[in-house]
Structures are given as structure tokens and as C-alpha cells.
Amino acid sequence: MVKGMPPRPPSRPDRVSLWRYMRLFRKDILSAQPEKLYRAWMAEFKTPFFRSYLANDPTLIDLVLKQRPDDFPKSDRVGEGLRPLLGNSVFLTNGETWKRQRRIIDPAFEGGRLRDTFPAMQAAGEAAAKRLSERGANWVEIEEECSHAAADVIFRTLFSIPITHDIAAQVFTQFRDYQRTQPILNLAAFVPLPRWMPRPHRKKTRHTAKAIRALITQLTTARMAEIKAGTAPDDLATKIMTRVDPVTGETFSVAEMVDQVAIFFLAGHETSASAMSWALYLLATHPDIQDEMAAEVQAAFSQGVSFSALSKLKLTRDVFREALRLYPPVPMMVREASCPERFRDRPVKKGAQVVLSPWHLHRHQRLWDNPDGFDPKRYQTENGKHCLRTAYMPFSAGSRVCTGAGFAMVEGPLLLALLLQEYRFDADPARRPVPVAHLTVRAKDGIWLQVSPRN
After folding, report:
1. What is the Cα 208 distance to its own chain's centre?
2. Residue 376: CB partners within 8 Å, gap ≥ 6?
3. Which tens digit of pLDDT belongs to each residue from 429-455?
4. Range 227-252 average pLDDT
5. How many CB atoms sit inside 10 A of residue 414's CB?
6. More reliable by pLDDT, 228 or 193
7. Which residues pair with 450 in a beta bridge?
8. What region does 424 belong to: left with phi over 0, alpha with psi -120 to 50, or beta?
9. Phi and psi (nearest 5°) for 329?
């Protein structure tokens, strides 16, 4: 492996026909992307039924996500595969339903509230470090460990229970089985099929989603009873379930809360686990940056781990930010034109699919310096600062930006810091992970790192 260069996408064919693209796409959306899409400002995909447009132009992205988001609602086709698990969650809804959900959810994740969740995040990180110590100096499949840690964070901050709690452990186990059976983006997004054509879900996917939702219902029902009894802890679940919508005067029912908890778990566990795994791999392949980051952590935590110490972890934050750039957990998102449009002098018909792709945007050759290189210090340069504002959206952007973005930017650097404080991570050159898209961007055969005590 060339120092300073992370692995490129599995393949970047120069030219592909539509039918070859569809075959590659069905196998894995990342390996299907031709080289020219990392240079294009826009691309049009023609099918017998619909048109889809990939928008890499920052001006178009700004239009869709920030200037006129109501004119480009989230495509229903994105939810086809995720509906059995997520129901009518905030990730899938549009319009007034979505606005009502965000009015109830957003206050729980406001900046001042993050300090309240910090002790639970710290406890989960320290538990993860302890689990690694029990392995000794050994080769570890780090995605599994990061998934365990991220799930622990969610349960501790949401329901005040650790991952060792019986129901939490069952949800985690079931979700591990679910996540590799369902891509977050299916072929219909790029090459939409007629709405009348059936899209049956896999039997195993439906069964696992039903089991996960049943477990979440148990937790949510129990919490509702605690709220009524006045014994509920003041965690995220309680904050959200007791929040009254200032417009309608309503709160979430148990059924509505189950939908939201499902997306909190997916978004808060899957995406964080993906980003942390790739960050540790990138550090393992760049030992000089790893050593510099470890020194920063030691200095920041010299008086103990605290919320205020996070402000000293500048390189650590940029390492996590760079992992999100190179391996955005959600590689593509789809909107739908609700009225006729014109993009870069091309007509866009009502109903056309507009694909916004962090995977392409974050590696765009006409925007970023050294787009495929791992360089966490790029954010101190003029190009890096500019691209951070205009060509960086791991959490989406505008009004539909992920409500947990701030949460993730505390959790990720903190857990990385707690692990780097204790351990050194080394990569095996013979085991280069290949990114593929399941629910999030994961490694095809896992990410194997050698973990050894730092001292």
C-alpha cells in the first residue's frame, strides 16, 4: 500500500452501458460507478420509463437541499427497502408529517444537550477499550468491535441501559443479521422501475425487521409506563417522548416512537460504526498520523476525560471528518423533482429522480486537492476549508441535515480518542478492505487490524 493513499473504490470502469451498469449496480452500487462520474458536474441516466440525474455541482446540491427542499422531497423509492424496519420514521417521511416529527425530535439533540449524553458515551467507549484488552495483542475484525461500541452508545444515551442488557443485546444481534441483507439504496433509485411493478422484500429481511421492532416496542412501552409513574430517567427517550409539538400540542404515541427509535438505532449505530471502522483503518495505514493523534489525546486527557477536553482534540476531529469524507456512511441519497426543472440547461421532468452522492462529491477530482488521499490536515488549507463548506455532506445538508450530526461529531472523536489512548492499530497489507454498500459503507470481508497495548 502506498503511504498516504487509501484504497480506491473497488473498480472505476471508464465506460459502461446501461445494462452493464444495472448488473454492476445490483452487485454493489460502489463498484458500478464509472471513472467519469468523479469528474462530472451532472450525469443523466435514461431508462424506458424515467430519467435519473446525478448532481455533483455544488450549486445544484445547494438548490435541492438548502434553497428549495420542499420542491425536492425524499424519493419514496428510497424507503421501499427500509419500510419494514423503519415504518413511518423521520428518515422516510416528507411534508408536514416530517416537519412535525423534527419539531419533536430536534430539541433533544441541541448543542447544550450533548453535554448531558457525554457520560454515557464515555462509559461505552471505556467498555469498548476493556473488551479489546481481553483479546490481548491480536488480529481483530474491527467493524464488529465498532458496531458493538456504537450500539452501546445508542442504548446508554437513549434508554440508559448498556449493551449487556438482555433486550439491547437481542436488538444488536438481530440488527447485525439484518444490515447485510438490505442495501440503503436499491437499483430503483438510479434506474427507477414502474410503480406498478412489485418489489417483494426478502422473507428473512421481513422476519428480522419484525423481530427488531417487537423488541423496540418492549423498551418503548416500558419507558412510557415509567414516564406515567414519574420514575423515568432523563435520557433521550424520555426527552423525546415527553416533548410536546408546539404547533399541534401532540406528543409521540408508542407506535410513532417505535418508528423513531428504529431510525435512531440505524442512523446512530450503523453510521457511527462505519465511520469509526474506516477511521481506525486509515490510522493503521498511516502510523505517523496515528502517533501524532495519540500524543494529542494524551495531552488533552492528562487531567482526565471530560467534555471540555474534547475541544483540544483538533487532529482527532479532523481524522474522523476525513474518514467521513472518504467513506461516507450513507453514500447516496435520492430526491424527487415535484415540478418541472432545468439543471445545467437540461430539462428535468416532474417525477425525475435526483441523486445526491457524497461518495462522488467527496472524491470529486475538480473540487478537492488529492481527492483519494487520506489527509486530515487538509481542513487547515484554503481548498479544504472551501470544500468543507460547499462539497462535504456526510450528514446531508439544509433542513434535512441529520438531527444527530452534532451527536456523531462528539461520539466519533471521543471513542477514537479513548481507543487510541490505550492501543496501537496496525494493518495487514495482504488484507486490504474493499468498500461495499449495505445499509452503510462497510468492508466486503471486514476490516482486520492488529491491536496491541500502546504502553
Report:
1. 21
2. 289, 315, 318, 319, 321, 322
3. 888 898 888 778 888 889 999 999 987
4. 95
5. 24
6. 228
7. 139, 426
8. beta
9. -55, -40
* Percentage above 90 pLDDT, the chain: 64
- pLDDT given for residue 182 in this prediction: 60
Which grid cell sits at 200? 417483494
Cα separation, 232 vs 225, whole angstroms: 8
Distances (CA, A) of 416 to 7, 105, 135, 385, 432: 21, 27, 18, 23, 21
For residue 196, what pLDDT is reported? 46
3-state secondary structure the chain: CCCCCCCCCCCCCCCCCHHHHHHHHHHCCCCCCCHHHHCCCEEEEECCCCEEEEECCHHHHHHHHHHCHHHCCECHHHHCCCHHHHCCCCCCCCHHHHHHHHHHHHHHHCHHHHHHHHHHHHHHHHHHHHHHHCCCCEEEEHHHHHHHHHHHHHHHHHHCCCCCCHHHHHHHHHHHHHHCCCCCCCHHHHCCCCCCCCCCCCHHHHHHHHHHHHHHHHHHHHHHHHHHHCCCCCCHHHHHHCCCCCCCCCCCCHHHHHHHHHHHHHHHHHHHHHHHHHHHHHHHCCHHHHHHHHHHHHHHCCCCCCCHHHHHCHHHHHHHHHHHHHCCCCCCEEEECCCCEEECCEEECCCCEEEECHHHHCCCCCCCCCCCCCCHHHHHCHHHHHHHHHCCCECECHHHCCCCHHHHHHHHHHHHHHHHHHEEEEECCCCCCCEEECCCEEECCCCEEEEEECC
Question: Is it the case that residue 193 has pLDDT exceeding 60?
Answer: no
Residues 246 and 393: their CA atoms lie apart, in Å, by: 29
Considering only CA atoms, which of 333, 301, 304 is closest in space to residue 420? 301
The CB-side HSE value for 276 (13 A sphere, CA atoms) comes to: 33
What's the pLDDT tens digit per position in 141-157? 999 999 999 999 999 99
Does residue 194 carry a pLDDT above 60? Answer: no
pLDDT, position 23: 54
Question: pLDDT tens-digit profile of 209-226?
Answer: 888 999 999 999 999 999
